[in-house]
Write a structure and sequence with these properties.
Layout: E1 6-11, H1 15-19, H2 27-43, E2 47-52, E3 67-69, E4 72-74, E5 83-84, H3 89-101, E6 107-109, E7 112-114, H4 116-126, E8 134-138, H5 149-166, E9 170-175, H6 183-186, H7 194-208, H8 214-225, H9 229-237, H10 239-243, H11 250-259, E10 265-273, E11 278-285
Parallel strand pairs: 1-9, 2-8, 2-9, 3-6, 4-7
Antiparallel strand pairs: 1-11, 4-5, 10-11
Helix pairs in contact: 5-11, 8-9
Pfam family, one: LigB
EC number: 1.13.11.16
Keywords: Oxidoreductase, Plasmid
Length: about 290
């Protein structure tokens, strides 16, 4: 059930969108994202809980299944400078303690440096990294073994119970997906520097453009629209095989939807953008 004191927005992200500085591609997606941003401005949250994945930047040698950041920043990337995030430490600490009491052995993270998975939705939906306080909640979507979808939903349920106790106006964001298979994530490697990452991506980009799976994307959006948890579990657990390595990021959507109360999420837009190698979508709670 949707919560009056909560707004859920789930949105795809893509470095390709930022490289497209002249905004040639993804016109429909950008329009949908703008509509979601207008809804965020109207809602005007006290703070944000942001479920994001990691592209093997912040977590390489130790990879928490779930984490809560007590302090964090974003790396310099895509023409943007490095910047600190305004993490409300008391709320973040209380959330971490609640999750531990709820039998989730989370990673408590301090001074982690996050990438566009967190930075892009903040810029796109709020207009800047510092518009609202934000609690980053990393979910492992990149480095196997990954959490099963049912457990991700249970994790979101636990966050929901915490937020129910606070009485705050909270924007809950899930970021990533839908179908895509970035060359760098197809590698079963956890230690890759930026130069090697760029080479792998450049070489694999032509093939990655053909790996979008609109049928799977639409099935997933339909499951969110009807809040069909059984379908969401089945589709998400099969994401890698059916929709590419990057589709694993829909785990952040699962967590966000559950944290928002588990109600339906309506798709504002869906657009497969080959130039960004991703099925791009935005979905929002009522």
């Amino acid at each position: 059930m949707a919560k009056r004191d909560r707004l859920v927005v789930c949105a795809s992200h893509s470095p390709g969108m930022e490289r497209d500085v002249e905004k040639v591609f993804g016109t429909s997606f950008r329009d949908g994202l703008a509509r979601a941003a207008a809804r965020v401005r109207e809602f005007d949250p006290d703070y944000i809980v942001l479920f994001g994945g990691d592209h093997r930047r912040a977590f390489r040698h130790v990879v928490p299944t779930f984490g809560v950041a007590l302090s964090a920043g974003v790396i310099a990337e895509g023409g943007h400078a490095a910047s600190a995030l305004a993490v409300p430490q008391d709320r973040a600490r209380a959330l971490a303690e609640h999750l531990l009491k709820s039998h989730f052995d989370i990673g408590v993270c301090r001074d982690i440096e996050l990438d566009h998975a967190f930075a892009q939705p903040l810029r796109d939906l709020t207009g800047g990294l510092d518009r609202y306080p934000v609690i980053p909640v990393p979910v492992n979507c990149a480095t196997a073994p990954l959490p099963h979808a049912r457990r991700v939903l249970e994790f979101g349920d636990a966050v929901c119970r915490f937020l129910d106790e606070q009485g705050d106006r909270v924007l809950v964001i899930g970021t990533g997906g839908l179908s895509h298979s970035p060359p760098s994530l197809e590698l079963d490697a956890y230690e890759i520097d930026d130069e090697e990452r760029a080479r792998v991506i450049a070489e694999g980009l032509p093939g990655a453009r053909k790996k979008i799976k609109p049928e799977w994307d639409k099935s997933l959006l339909d499951a969110f629209a009807t809040a069909d948890r059984a379908a969401l579990v089945e589709l998400s657990d099969a994401a890698h095989a059916r929709a590419g390595a990057g589709a694993n990021e829909v785990r952040t959507w699962l967590a966000a939807s559950a944290a928002g109360g588990g109600g339906p999420l309506s798709a504002l837009v869906y657009e497969p953008v080959e130039e960004w190698i991703t099925g791009m979508a935005v979905a929002i709670s009522a």
